[in-house]
Amino acid sequence: MERRGGRPRRTHLARVSLVFAATVAATALIGFGGMAAWQAYSENAGNSVAAGSLGHSNTVATQSCTSVTSTSLLNQAGNTCAVIIGVSGVSPSSPATLTSGAVVITSTGTLQSTLSMQMPSAATGNLCADLELTVTDSSSVTDYAAAALSTQMGATSLKDSAGATTWPGTSPGPAGTDTYAFTITKGTNFNTDYQDAGQSCTFSILFTQQAD
Q: Rounded to an integer, what distance in angstroms lies between the CA atom of residue 172 and that of residue 161?
């Protein structure tokens, strides 16, 4: 009897041990891979970085144009800047100051910036050597001293109406602005140089703005 009863008992114990071990293993798998327990969360969403804007308007009389992001976009249809200087029929009997024109530059972007003006290319025409250009601002500061138009204007810094070379943007305060008067006067030889008759002089002024 002991022999017959002992054998099944050992077999039963072995089977119970195997089932227990399998249960423990399954529980371990669920604990590590299937159950999300003992966790906490915190999220800071919506983080972003935004650039400020850069731009200016160029106004002559009542006509305005807006700045563009590349020189290749200049003088596009619908956004052509007005002529600052335009006069014809000048002669030895004309007054020493032949003509004057004004342009208003206003920063329209949010960023602080610096502005400058220059001739992107040399003035053209035989009359240029006997004409002089001077540029002053509304504070009577001479931005460009009288020079013959045969001299190409290099990059020349511009001040805003507050007298600063750094122009404020529209954020947080009012933007920088100023008016620049371009004056053409006779050169030393204008009245006596007979070769000036029938001649002309043309030039462009490029305003450049750069974010600080």
A: 17
Rg (CA), the chain: 40
138 and 130 Cβ atoms separated by less than 8 Å = no
Q: Are residues 64 and 108 in contact, defined by beta-carbon separation less than 8 angstroms?
A: no
* pTM score, whole prediction: 0.80
Worst-scoring range by mean pLDDT, 77-81, 101-105, 146-150, 161-165? 161-165
The DSSP call for residue 31 is: I
Degrees, nearest 5: CA angle 150-153-158? 150
Split at pLDDT 50, 70, 90, the class of 118 is very high
Query: Distance (Å, rounded) from C-alpha 187 to C-alpha 122?
Result: 17
**Across residues 33-60, what is the average pLDDT?**
91
CA 34 to chain centre: 54
Q: Is 147 exposed, middle or buried (0-12, 13-18, 19+ CB in 10 A)?
A: middle
Average pLDDT over residues 177-198: 97
Supply φ then ψ for residue 154, to 5 degrees. -85, 180
* Structure-token pair, residue 24: 């423990």
- In this prediction, residues 18-31 reach a mean pLDDT of 52
